[in-house]
Structures
1.
Amino acid sequence: MYDKIIFYIFILMEQEILNIAIKNLSTATGLMIETNDLLKPFNNFHDGVLTIFNKGVQIEIPYTIKRKITVAELPFLQDLPPKKGLIILEYASKSVKEQLKRLEINYLEISGNAYISFDKIYIFINTNKRIKLEGNDSNAAFSKTGLKVVYQLLINKNSIDYSYRNLGEISGVSIDTIGRVYGELIRDKYVVKINNRKHSILDYERLFKDWVTLFNKTLRPKLKKRSFRFSNNQNIQSLFEANFSGEIGGELAAEKLSKYNIAEKANIYVKGSFVELAMKLNLRPDSNGQVTMIEQFWNDTSDKNKKVVDLPLVYADLISDPKPRNLKTAKLIFNEYFYQPI
């Protein structure tokens, strides 16, 4: 029963996106457009087929519905099978739409903005104002303090049922903040309330990717940071052998998790003095240094031997420096650890 409720919640969300997008595209182009029933999916890769009637010609385009696409999803966009389908979504930023067009991936926003190059149809509209679905305004869940709470929900599947006091202590926020964050996560269908004491995350992947994007945009710029270099020409891999209080992130953490590439840089999330840690690790200030210390935004857990930050933060670190190698590494570690918090 519970699984059916979740299924129909998502169907209703997707149906709303589909209906508004088709209406506005039809208005903007004058084309007649039809689609199939979402409850009867087209195949394993697409949600349905869009049929466009143009000058007596009928063109069918398989489509996939997504609430939005963010920079956090860029590592996965080129793998959509087949590439010449259509993504129908609520909204994407200007930079993401430019990436989609560059990759020749068709998209349609609910505003009617679109890039569609398929068969004998070419449509490019980028002048319509953004439309927000009712209840999708920015909220406390992705504010500076809310992001700290959501991070805990992502890295520990049991934390969603912690007491407000316990979750607040781990996150470093007030009990009132926990209440507001939960209320708005429920409102925006990230979380469902099962009873007075139990909640469940509806869509972990959506929450994960939205957290990554908004962490990099909202919380990361507020965190103190400083760059350093080794004074004795050590390589950054030596940080794994050093004994210090802090957790490693960025490319070096990804190297350990993926074994895909040799890191050129490392982040260290630190609770305390940067200067004291720099002295301990023989580091000197250097704006172009390969080691960046960043203020730790969560409270220490009982695991004192932990060396690497959790997966969402490793992923966010890589996406914040979107070199092709980092994007590929981000995808690899996401696919390997998605269902298993580090």
2.
Amino acid sequence: MEKIILVSRKFDRDCGSAEWIYADYLSEYLKSKGVDVCEVSQKIKQSSNNNSHKILNDLLILPIKLIYFCIFKGIKKVYFISENQAIYSGLLNFFGIETFVMFYDLIHLNNRGLRKFYFTNVYMLALRSKVIFCDSSLTLENIKKTYCIDTKKLLVIPPIYRKFNPAKKVKGEKVILGYIGSLGGRKRTELLLDLAEELRKSNFENFKIVVWGKGIIPKVPNNLKKLIKFYGYVREEYLERTYNSFDYLVFPSSEEGFGLPVIEAMMCGKPCFILEDGIFPKEVKKECYILKNIGQIPKKVLSLSNAEYLSKSRSVRNYAKGFDMEKLFDKTYKVLFKN
């Protein structure tokens, strides 16, 4: 029987973290293939937001668990689901353990001072893994530009873990511009309030913006409350239905290693808007409408005939079929076990 250690802070498909959700789905898939999967996760409270607990876990608890499972249980493969925990890859390789790591982006290198120094070195250690999975062509290229590395170790496999389908949407009185993802930071969800203000000033009353995601919900001015609504986190079982309630996805992020909500919306046949100054992988932005500023969205929507909208919907749906969850899991399995 094949054996492997999967390392992730959590294995939880209803937590809001793409890495932890992917870890849970991947573990389930490998078990379905008959693999003996050992899940190594973080049990410390507040692991989702306490950096000191994360560092303590990685420096003290994680190596003890790896020693136990590798030496005493004889497991010879370790897959770090996040690059942030793969600091022992080189050491494990030295002792004959095959190591694999998933890189989602190098966005932490945009920080300054001690934080940048910390992640620069964490990534350097993680890149000693035998195989480096990259979530996109953009992440692969950023690694090549930033670090001196054997490029033969780099492999693009997007961490797709859902398979959605379009549902027939009852045409409503309003055009629904939707967003799903984290709130604030590089996601720039504050721009959705600017979009609502543009709708108000231009008297575009047949639009509504709906925002779903974890984070601090901003205060919405009274004169915009009819135009934009923040609903909070979407549970896993309602996600497909939520995408299908949109007419378009608006995703104003400044930078993404991949941009999973864009592909998931396309699976449901929803055309997507991103911004010109946003940094996205070429394979994600290929079928998007790319605009200079968010205020241009209403006019672009109104310029499309019903036939043009349906054509774009079919186009993005067909394109998203290239990101098939089962095929990508199969590809990962073959790399892990050389089948």
3.
Amino acid sequence: MEWAQQRARLRAAGDYAAADALRDRIAGAGWRAVDSEDSFRLEAAVRFEAVIPARVADRSAEPDGVDASVLLLLEDHPATREDATRCLSGVLAHHTDTAYELILLDNGAGGEIGDWAADVARNPGVTAVHLAEAVGFAEARALQHRVATGGLLVWLDTGVEPTGDLLSPLIAAFANPAVGLAGRWGGDLGPGIDRFANADPAPAGAPLREVHAVWGYLLALRRRMVTDGAITMDPAFAFYRNADADVAFQVRSAGRRVVLLDLPAVQHAHRAYADTPATERDRASRRNYRRLLDRWRPQMERLAGG
């Protein structure tokens, strides 16, 4: 209120430049000064506009604008802001020569999370998209793909804390045109096709380890494979589990390699797993795995017998 009163006095004195500077400070504090002929009132500022998915900007026809797009998905959870701040701090703390952008998707959370995303998006190279209602995991990632212009699309779960430069080694790996998907964690089938066993990346200096699937906590794919239609996100994967494996099988079907890198990152709690009741989580996981089997059983059997 003190800034608003001071601004009113400056306007009355005709010092509009100083009054405008105070208006910006008031806006930065989350308020809007509305002037009338001889007074003013303060209103809570609209920090962001929430839209339906159909109104999310589609930039897929644009050429690549940067080397990589880092995609953070913000869900409606009490720990999201803390997790996202830790994740983003890890990205920003480690200098990289890679030109990149950040795409934040507020998945119907709004409130404090929406405000946080809007504040971060005031920085150059950051875009925040706010959805009026939450969508499923695969649809959320598809919307981020639609907005992003990086040559690499990098899924980064807010539960992951980067401890070094993630982007430079990813760019180096994708310099090999045979690589279509790369990440930090993944899994292999075998001897049967009922489950994936977790796999680790190859030691430093060894050839990249090829795997059957890369987990979506930290993975990168080629934007061109998305815009060309080689990779599509199936909205039936509303729960996150196995949506990443579906992408891996699409990449392999397009004739590209799926590999792991020893990227510098620590994995903390993944909220969608840790905080979903076990019975619900298991039911959604089984349903998604059946989708994999329905679509990819022959390829899965070949890999498991491989």
